[in-house]
Amino acid sequence: MDNKSLIYKDIIRELNKKSGDKLLKTRAILVLSRGTIGKKISVDGQTIGSLEEGETGGHTDKLSALILFYGYTHKEFYDFDKPLPTERQLKSRMKRFHEAIGSDAYKIIYDRPDLIDLIEFRLLATDLFSEWVTAEQVISYCKTKYKFEYLPSSTPNTLDNAVKKGWLAVDEKAKPKRYRKK
After folding, report:
1. Which residues 6+ apart lie within 8 Å of 34 measured at CB?
2. Domain range for residue 133?
3. Are 20 and 51 in contact (CB under 8 A)?
4. Which among 62, 87, 110 is the end of a domain?
5. SS3 133
6. Is 178 helix (H, G, I), strand (E, B) or coil?
7. Any residues with CB less than 8 A from the CB of 136 and at least 6 apart, and which?
8. Average pLDDT of the residues in 59-77
9. Mean pLDDT, to the nearest integer, of 36-40?
10. How many domains does the chain have?
11. C-alpha span between 85 and 101 (Å, rounded)
12. What's residue 6's pLDDT?
């Protein structure tokens, strides 16, 4: 392989990395799961994960679908010097774009996010898990802070999944179990 080919490979690798990072951060702003978005744009969650990890390979049509889903033109999306929009700006952009093309796919941005996504993209960045908290305290926090209601029966399982992902530690001896940041 000649030097020019290596240079192009490096440029493409860097472009894929920046694109993936922007896709992940944009999804995080909306607190949406890969699967939720995938259902709306007919792209499986695993492919979205690959794109977010910068492994675009032959998925240019799927990358374009994501870019358009977020309401970007390609030119706007690839302007990596421009800061990401706020949540309000992004939702407004998406609504305008989707309404202009006659799509209602953007409406998922108003749904309650899965608790695991809320933990990953919002709650870990708060002080909620600085001290030990119970599932009941997490439910109360989400209701007060975000107006999202989660079931007492499923919240402990979700918190246990956050432990498995390495985000939280669990005090198994406490009754009820308590959780905090690792």
Report:
1. 27, 45, 46, 48, 49, 52
2. 115-181
3. yes
4. 110
5. strand
6. strand
7. 152, 176
8. 94
9. 95
10. 2
11. 21
12. 75
CA dist., res. 99 & res. 143, Å (int): 30
The position carrying tokens 């119970």 is: 134
Tokens matching residue 31 = 């607190």
Phi-psi region of 171 (alpha: psi -120 to 50; beta: other; left: phi over 0): beta
Cβ–Cβ < 8 Å for 30, 87: yes
For residue 60, the model assigns a pLDDT of 85
pLDDT at 9 over 90: no
Per-residue tokens: 26: 């944009």
pLDDT above 70 (res 2): no
Distance CA 60, CA 37 (A): 17
Residue that is last in its domain, among 54, 88, 110: 110
d(CA 138, CA 131): 12
For residue 113, the tally of other CB atoms under 10 A from its CB is 21
Instruction: List residues bridging with 170 in a β-sheet.
Output: 179
One domain for residues 92 and 16: yes
CA neighbours closer than 13 Å in the CB half-sphere of residue 66 = 32
pLDDT for 57 equals 65
Distances (CA, A) of 59 to 40, 44, 71, 84, 175: 17, 12, 19, 23, 48
The CA-based diameter of the chain, rounded to the nearest angstrom, is 64
Question: Six-digit token pair at 59?
Answer: 């998925």
